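[retry 2/3] MFS general substrate transporter: previous attempt timed out, resubmitting with same input.
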Amino acid sequence: MLPLLGLLYAIALIDRTNLGIARTAGMDHDLHLSIGNRYSIISFVYFIPYTLLQFPSNIILRKLGVSNWLTFCTVSWGAVQLAMGFVPSWKHLVLCRALLGAFEAGFFPALVFVITTWYTRHEIQKRLGAFYLVAILTGGFSPIFAYVLTLLGGKRGISAWAWIFIVEGAITILFGLVSWFFIPDFPDQNKFLTEEETKVVLERVEQDRGDSIPDELTVGKVLQHLGDWKMWAFAMMYFCATIPAYAIGFFVTIILRSMGWSVTHSLLLSAPPYIFAAMSIMFFAWLSDKYRQRATFIALQTGMTLLGLFLTGFMNSASWRYFGIFLANGGSAGCIPGILAYSANNTISHSKRAVSTAIIISFGGIGGIFATTVFRQVDFPHYTPGIYASIGCQLVLLILLAGTTTYFRQQNRNAGSGCQIEGRAEFVYTL
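[retry 2/3] MFS general substrate transporter: success.
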């Protein structure tokens, strides 16, 4: 289940962030993207439908069926990605990016929602980490693959950057069609396990947190869940964590170019930071599950992100700036599954999980909007305002983390005196 879902999300990440690669490969010149804020607008517009449509998508997921919905999303955005190879102007590219955001909107929250229903609380981060590792690792090598595709430049009169969109879009469509036969559903609806095997899965989840059987999703419940301040705290943490990740995804090849490397070297040097991030994700996920601690390891990775941002933003040496990309990418990428696990561990019921997952990940979309607007073309090559904004957001993350940890610790102490947490007598928060 995890390798397949990870591979599908890797394709989503590649299709979402290959804009910077295509720009480096010649799209900037052909579509005149350096004029004004055109590139920022093209990057930004993706996140508007991506953010707005995540919540309704998760609400209807169970009714539509996981495999049906995810296949539709994948094939649709693959078609849009392919079409981006034929846009005649930057305005057409804006339209395609908006459609790409609309079709990708329901994908990631659905994946996280489904994965968290299969595992017990202290198994989740390793699973989310493994799923995200596949995506990060595959996505990290996308610049190298993109470089290979640029060698097709001029074939059939098509520019090098256009081949990136055309080939990667075609691959996405193919994967989307094939994946329909293998995408898993919720545990209680799955068709690939026997009845006895399904019973084992449901019993493990029931013993762990008591929500193996989905509850009915009503308007009243949605409003009740939306009133929980903890969900919004998790969402703000996720927003803060995604900003460096998106900034690196969109601007890494451009930043490397500003350090003096050629187009070829900039594309090839984009991959190693993602290899480091993959190792960092699994190391911290293993520690987090082993010691049943979330906040401590999120804080450590946030510190790593901060150090990386300082190095990349304020050092003069290209080597130190490049090393900073390793740290910032590894720290922010590791915080993403960490925060999702932190939230999932402290959430009970399918209805609340559907709402919270969608809201939290939609704040990641807002993080994408923020990243694409604070890293402005006029600030090239150092993007100092964007670096300052990213540093500030990491400090906000640490403050929120301290607040939730203090609250959870106090509530767990009260639970020992007979008080119920989240309506469950045996439930305690994961710190």
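[retry 2/3] MFS general substrate transporter: The mean pLDDT is 85.
[retry 2/3] clearing retry counter.
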